[in-house]
Amino acid sequence: MINREVKRVVRLQVVLTLVAVLVAAVIGGFAPILPVSVVIGGLCAIVPALLYGKIAFARRHEPPAVLMRAHFKAEAVKFFTTLLMFGAALVFFKDLSVVGLFGGYMTATSGYWFGLLIKN
């Protein structure tokens, strides 16, 4: 189960990634390489964030040490998932725009920081 705050942050990451895809489509002259690269970069941030939420918040009403271990485990899974996704993107998609890939990742990752600043 993913808690409400994680859903809010992931939703913001998705919205920011979609905006970046539209901008990339206009900048790239509607050629598919740049927007696809931005989508893959955004997914490299969104999927690990979802995994983090599932792992870190799976347990409730546990001692603090157990909750901290869950967060450490979730962060390790998030880190390695991000590395694997970037590696797979760079290996399997030869025509990717590296600028678009990392731009999409940074845009989606900024959703986390904006999520901390924006409270509903």
TrEMBL record:
GO terms for cellular component:
plasma membrane
Residues annotated as signal peptide: none
Say yes or no: keyword Membrane present.
Answer: yes
Q: How does it sit in the membrane?
A: Multi-pass membrane protein
Coiled-coil region: none
**InterPro entries on file:** ATP_synth_I
Could you list this entry's UniProt keywords, alphabetically sorted: Cell membrane, Membrane, Transmembrane, Transmembrane helix
Q: Where does this polypeptide localize?
A: Cell membrane
Q: Where are the transmembrane segments?
A: 12-30, 36-55, 76-93, 99-118
Q: Which Pfam families match?
A: ATP-synt_I
The answer, when asked if Transmembrane helix is one of the entry's keywords, is: yes
What protein does this entry describe?
Answer: ATP synthase I chain
- Record organism: Pseudogulbenkiania ferrooxidans 2002
